[in-house]
Amino acid sequence: MDPKWNDDLPIYRQLRDRVVEMILEGVLSDGDVLPSVRNVAAEYRLNPLTVLKAYQELVDEGLVEKKRGRGMFVNNGAQDQLLKDERRRFIEKEWPLVRATIERLGLDAAELFQKDSAPADAGGEND
Question: Most buried residue, 19, 36, 114, 119, by CB count within 10 Å?
């Protein structure tokens, strides 16, 4: 996890988001144990209550399970659930903005995808 915090969001929310990223990227998989509240608090010089609040949000969302005396574990299917939620959020919130920008600028979506998938040296500036 990146120890840099920004001022736009509460630290507990940033910590929660970083754990979510780790699950989405496969760094944390089903059944993996999360670092202990004490370890995270000590490593990043955070109040343990801040870490606990971040972890509790993950529990409340059904992504993590708290096992008394053993720690916090990633629930089975957490990555699939997150992917589903992130895709829905993108389609509902981000895509309309992207689509409006494409239309406003008079861009052709097919051309954009073609340019995106073209090899880096295509068109060769140094040819």
Answer: 19
Amino acid identity of residue 63, one-letter, is L
Give bridge partners of residue 33 from the DSSP assignment.
Answer: 73
Q: Which residues are paired to 82 by β-bridges?
A: none
Asked if 28 and 72 touch (Cβ cutoff 8 Å), the reply is: no
Whose structure tokens read 């969001």? Answer: 9
In the block, tokens 């529990």 appear at 59
**What are the extents of the domains in the chain?**
11-78, 80-117
What are the pLDDT digits (tens) for 61-114? 999 999 999 999 999 999 999 999 989 999 999 999 999 999 999 998 888 888
Q: Which of 41, 44, 45 is nearest to 53 (CA)?
A: 41
In CATH, what is the architecture of 11-78? Orthogonal Bundle (1.10)
Give per-residue burial for 87-114: e unless 16+ CB within 10 Å, then b: eeeeeeeeeeeeeeeeeeeeeeeeeeee
> How many CB atoms are located within 10 Å of the residue 80 CB?
10
End-to-end CA distance of the chain: 42
